[in-house]
Amino acid sequence: MEIIIKIFIGLVAFIHCYILWFEMFAWDTRGKKVFKTFPEDLFGPTKKMAANQGIYNGILAAGLIWTFFINNYEWRINVSVFFLICISIAGTFGAITTEKRIFFVQALPAIVALVLTLVYN
After folding, report:
1. Better-scored residue on pLDDT, 31 or 78
2. What is the domain range of residue 34?
3. How many domains does the chain have?
4. Which end of the chain is more exposed for a tag (fewer CB within 10 A), N or C?
5. Distance CA 92, CA 110 (A)
């Protein structure tokens, strides 16, 4: 089960690395394909704001990647739980305030990883 938990944590980290990339470096190209309801003329003026959001997603990903290098069992679980809760909250908030699919892309994988981590550790 530990391998499955690590796979889910890795998946969540990968998703947030991808979000970092498109928000920081491809906002006015890939961002337009991801956020189809966002007015196209606003991608340029909001590029710096998106980059700021991207760095936060990168920090969340870095926190989860860090857990792969923590040897102390309790520390590893606590750090994993912390970052998974942060991502679950951020994804749920994004779904409520922006687009519902954010829940399925960000929050749900984090919630699954969180539940697996709490139940099997």
Report:
1. 78
2. 2-119
3. 1
4. N
5. 10
